[in-house]
Amino acid sequence: MSSLLKSLLAVPLRALTWIGDQGTRAVAAVVFIAVAVPPIGALLRPYLTWAIVGLLCISFMRVDLAALYGHLRRPALVATATAWTTLGVPLLVGLIAWATGFDNHAPGLFLGLMLQGMASPMMASPALAAMMGLDATLVLITLVTSTALVPFTATLFAGLFLGAKLSVTPLALGLKLLGLLSGSLLGATIIRRLAGAEAIQRHKRPIDGINIIILLAFASAIMGDVAHDVLTDPVFTIGIALLSFAIYFTLLAMTTLIFRRIGYERALALGLMVAQRNLGVMLAATSGALPATTWLYFAMTQFPIHLSPYMLTPIARRLTARADDAGTAAAGRTT
Question: What is the pTM assigned to this prediction?
Answer without folding.
Answer: 0.80
